[in-house]
Structures are given as C-alpha cells and as structure tokens.
Amino acid sequence: MGDWKKWVEEESEYQWLSFVAFTIFIIVGGILVNLAGNLPGISPGSTLGTQGRLLDSSESLSLWDSDDGRFFLDAKSGAKTSMPFATCVEENSAIRFVCSGIKSQVWIDSGEGLNSFTTSTNRTIIDASIQGTDIMMISSNGIKSGIIGMKALSPSTASPEAVGVGGDFNLDTIIATGEGKWMAGGGWNLPGASQSSSAATPLAYEVVVEITWSNVSLAPLIQVIHVGGQGAIHYMGILADGNILAAGTSGAIIINGMSTSEIDVRSTTAVIDKNGGVWFFGTSGEENIGHYTNGELMVEKLSKPLSIEPDHAFIDDNSISVHGISSDNTYEAMTIDTNAKNSLLSLRGVIDFLFIITSLVIIGLMFWNVAEAISKGEVF
User: What is the structure's pLDDT at 120?
Assistant: First the structure.
C-alpha cells in the first residue's frame, strides 16, 4: 500500500488530519461557491463615458443632462449641441430624430444632417419611434399624452392627435412593431378604479396600447392591450422571437399578438441584450437584478448592493451600460459583460471547472483502488 493511502486507513494516526483537511476543504469550498453565485463581469463606467446624467441614447446620438445644461452628442459629426428641454433621441437606418422639448419643434436628419422643423401641432413631443420614414410621436401638454404621426420626408405636416378615452394616458415609451404598427406604454389615470383614488388625483395604472396609422390626414388608431397594476410602463422592446416585452414599475409582460403573459419582476430600468435576454434593474440599494432568458426569470446576485438609481440602460455589443445617480447626487455608470457569466475565466466558470476535475480524480481513484484490490485477491 502506497504512503498516501495511510491518510485514509481506518484507525490510522493520520485519520484526524484527514478529517481536519476535509473540513477545511468543505468550508473553503462553500465560501467559493457562495462567491461564485455573484454575477461576474461588472465594472464601473460606461462605453459612452460619463458626460453627465444620460437621459436617452440611440446608435449615434446621446442625450445628456449636466451641471452646464442639457445637450446631445452626435457621434457621427462629433458635434455637441445645447438643447435645454430635449427629451429623446431616436434613429433607424434612414432617419434620425431628436425631441427638442419645445412646442411644435423637432429635429430630423433624413440624410442631410440634423435640422430643426416646425410641425403643425402645438404640443410638445416627448418620445418617438420610427418605422421606415414614418415617425410616431408621443405628445404632451403637461397633463396628458396624445399620439401624433408624421412623415419624415414632409415633417411640416403632422396627423391629427389621437387621445385615450375613459381616463388620461401618460405615455412614456414607444416602439415600432411592424409596417404601420407601433406600441406605446406608460400610465393610465383611471378615476374610480380604486377606493383610495379621487377624481382630482386618480391613480395611474400600467398600460400598453397598440397604434395603427398610415394616412397623415387621419389620426392614429389607439387600442388598449394591457392594463396592469399601479405604476407605469417605462421600457418596451422586441425579443428574439418577435414578441414584445413591456417592463413596468409593478411588473412586466410579454405580448404575443393580442395575448399577454406576466413576468413577476419590478423595475425602474430595463434593456434587451443582443441575445434576446432581458435585464431588469430596480432601485439603489437592491442586491439583485432580474435576468429573463429562454423563457425563465433568474435572479442574479450582485457582489454589492446597486450603488445608483438607474435612469437609462443601453446595449453596446456584448456589454450593458447602466447610467444613474448615486446617493451623493453624482452621475455614475456601471457596465455588465453579458458573456462573463458563461466564461471559463469567470469565478463561476473556474469553480465549475475545478469541481468537474476534482470529481473525476476522486472517481478515478476509487476505481483504481478497487482494481488494485481485485488484482491482489483482497476480500472487501
């Protein structure tokens, strides 16, 4: 019998040392496994840097609020343009759009650079989504929202405004879902919907509406698809399977045609990564974030509580950048490497790799001991 086997001999003087070594291994292994449960690949900063508070972003435009005022950056031209009341930036392959935050005014780039246009509406545009060269805009008078369509190639003419019925819409976000089709989300003030509400201050409930439009002389058609709990929808996106995700402050839903299914996760900011996974971020101080992928919601544990109040998140290749305000009122950001979770170089990957190798060594050793005993004619 080799010298190493005396460590496992019954009644051996090395038996207690073996037991102590095994106990230490279990404790250290437990600590490492616990650490491996934390979401890897998190680092401070953002791929856009931190120019201030990031309010919105698209492929080449970003809207910032800083101590020097509000402005947008154009990555194509490198220009920095002051725009004190701007609320959104949006673009597709043909059109770029900026909500100036001024009544009747928008900025559009249809191939000749960003230029200011005065529309036929006297309301303020707070968000927009582009389908081809059609732009669907959320308008606001400061009290309630409406929907207005506009042709980007003739921006001086806008459609009549469409508004909700049975309560005031306060829409916050909108996406294009197909030719002549959009969906928008936000809150819906429904008087009498709750005993605690009043006609003067009705409670807002999460709402998603579908919008259909093609003729600039006609108002868009609005159809309510979903009304959720108290709160508002803050993000909408398209999943890899073509279904629509709507994330809100009291929950999230997946929309497939006219049917919906709920995801039990609250958030203040959300984003869909390039693989179709959804990341949900809550409020400052929370220790977990939600990750919905392959039809399953997973809770990802952070190594330390979320240090910012998230405002906006965006995707840049394999990274998610989340911008917000810290507890000391400074503008900060964090980046998540979406590939790190499955990387062999992550702590979780290393632990899994070591566990597999160790298990194979132990199993191999057991079979080797049995084979050696059989070859010597020993009786078990």
Answer: 74
